[in-house]
Write a structure and sequence with these properties.
Elements: H1 17-25, E1 32-34, H2 40-50, E2 54-56, H3 60-63, H4 67-73, H5 80-97, H6 102-114, H7 120-128, H8 134-142, H9 146-149
Parallel strand pairs: 1-2
Length: 150
């Protein structure tokens, strides 16, 4: 259950975990809370306020690729070199089935989300955002030497 209305959209200030809890108390089925789960602390707070036994992550997984492990085990976020390796793998897999601009839009969107958590993503986003085709984007991402990032 998401703790906001459609009209409220994704605005953080409108999240209402207590409303999820109020509804949960009236139901005889498990309720999974969702909304503004960005780290272990926010997941714990959401479960405490809502009374739910579990949370579901959404957009945050685009910001922090290992957010599920961060939330469940209080692990640190994935280091930037591992994120780059994931981006490189994605570009290899995505181009196999690319039919046009889908990959271009998705990778730019993902990099935009990553900028919220990783300062290093800003430079890569600035470089990639002016590219207009999958091969150029893939080359730019594949050209990153992960060993130099460590």
């Amino acid at each position: 259950m998401h703790g906001r209305t459609k009209e409220q959209g994704y605005r953080a200030e409108h999240i209402d975990w207590q409303a999820i809890g109020d509804i949960r108390q009236r139901l005889n089925i498990p309720v999974i809370a969702n909304g503004e789960i960005w780290d272990w602390q926010s997941a714990q707070q959401c479960m405490a306020i809502s009374g739910c036994d579990a949370v579901m992550i959404g957009r945050g997984a685009l910001n922090i690729p290992n957010l599920s492990r961060v939330v469940k085990y209080n692990e640190p976020r994935m280091p930037w070199p591992e994120v780059v390796a994931l981006l490189q793998k994605y570009t290899r897999l995505e181009k196999q089935g690319d039919t046009g601009l889908y990959h271009v839009a998705r990778i730019k969107q993902w990099l935009s989300y990553l900028r919220k958590e990783y300062d290093e993503a800003t430079g890569l986003f600035q470089h990639v955002r002016v590219l207009n085709n999958s091969p150029d984007i893939a080359r730019a991402i594949q050209a990153i030497d992960i060993d130099k990032l460590r």
